[in-house]
Design a protein that fits this description.
- The protein is built from nine helices and 13 strands.
- α1 (about 20-35) runs parallel beside α4 (about 130-140).
- The chain is of the alpha/beta class and about 325 residues long.
- The chain binds adenosine-5'-triphosphate and magnesium ion.
- Adenosine-5'-triphosphate binds near residues 51 and 52.
């Protein structure tokens, strides 16, 4: 029985702080929306420009390519570029039954981004804190994804309020995929991201080392060896029957990402080389995982396989 000092509750005639009620309602909407999604990956990094959106876009595309039902949520509210990377030029979002309808990229891949809500995509966006929090709440609670096998969330960089609130408000996330580059494998920087995840009690699924090594292509007599010298080390590649070869040149010392992950006790998911094709394709709106196989695609597919290991075939083919 509630004593005289106990807070009054709705339905008992007492007033409820409207902000508390609003917060609870929003939380409930998020929980209800998220419980229809089997797996949630949050792609984050301590620094900007290391390839989060590239990883998130290609991860979602690869999962959809394997037959899963996938949603991609671009949570970068001030610099959304997932739609460009997917070649989606939609503007405006439809509302249905009180939910925001995500934009369909293919039969089993949908995306939601702030980009769709901006009248002028080139305009600088300045959101005040409370509005940002409201948008975050809506993007997590009101997007009508329906049943999904996977939701991939692309976070803005760093560990400020914004990425923090997003990660904090995703219940039962599988965990965070932390993206770094070789020159940033300075333990301090990744430690920051790991601390960020630990603070939120979100598991760290592992570290992706992006832009590790440079992919070069060339031609040589079929079956012949080509020796390339970076000044620091040499790489030998063998030309295929069609007279083409591919090699990865390492600008930074190899193995740094793996060593760092071991030192801080998180899984190492793999390295993706710096590949001019990745960047050109991103600018054209074509995820590189849909392109030709080679060192970059193979490396990325191995990472996807690690992230989905143990999820079972039951998740595939639109279960
Ligand atoms: N492996 C790669 N090879 C070549 N280019 C890459 C690679 N990864 C990312 N890029 C390019 O680097 C740039 C930054 O990548 P991206 O936008 O994915 O980074 P981000 O971490 O999401 O950045 P931000 O912090 O601004 O959100 C893009 O132009 C992208 O095409
Ligand atoms: Mg980004």
């Amino acid at each position: 029985m509630a004593g005289p000092g106990a807070p009054q509750q709705e339905g008992q005639g007492g007033p409820v702080d409207p902000r508390t009620a609003e917060r609870l309602k929003r939380r409930l909407r998020i929980i209800n929306n998220m419980k229809r999604i089997k797996h949630k990956f949050i792609v984050a990094s301590g620094k900007g420009g290391v390839g989060k959106s590239t990883v998130a876009t290609n991860l979602a595309t690869a999962l959809a390519g394997a037959g899963h039902k996938v949603g991609l949520l671009d949570m970068d509210l001030t610099g959304p570029n997932v739609p460009t990377m997917l070649g989606v030029r939609e503007s405006g979002v439809q509302e249905q039954d009180g939910g925001l309808v995500p934009v369909r990229v293919s039969d089993n891949l949908c995306v939601m981004s702030m980009q769709f809500l901006l009248p002028d995509p080139d305009e600088a966006i300045v959101w005040r804190g409370p509005i940002k929090m409201q948008i975050i709440g809506q993007f997590l609670g009101d997007v009508a994804w329906g049943e999904l096998d996977y939701l991939v969330v692309d976070l803005p960089p760093g560990s400020s309020d914004e990425p923090l609130s997003v990660a904090q408000n995703i219940p039962d996330a599988d965990g965070m995929v932390l993206v770094t580059t070789p020159q940033e494998v300075a333990v301090g920087d990744v430690r920051k991201s790991i601390k960020f995840a630990q603070k939120l009690e979100v598991p760290v699924l592992g570290v992706v080392e992006n832009m590790a090594g440079l992919v070069v292509h060339g031609k040589a007599p079929a079956g012949g060896d080509v020796v390339l010298d970076t000044g620091a080390d040499t790489v030998t590649a063998t030309a295929a029957d069609d007279g083409t070869f591919e090699a990865v040149l390492h600008v930074f010392e190899q193995g740094g990402g793996q060593r760092m992950a071991e030192q801080v006790g998180v899984p190492f998911l793999g390295s993706v080389p710096l590949d001019p094709v990745v960047n050109r394709k991103a600018d054209r709106g074509e995820p590189f995982v849909l392109g030709e196989s080679g060192a970059t695609r193979d490396a990325f597919e191995a990472i996807v396989a690690k992230l989905t290991a143990g999820h079972g075939d039951a998740d595939a083919q639109g279960s």
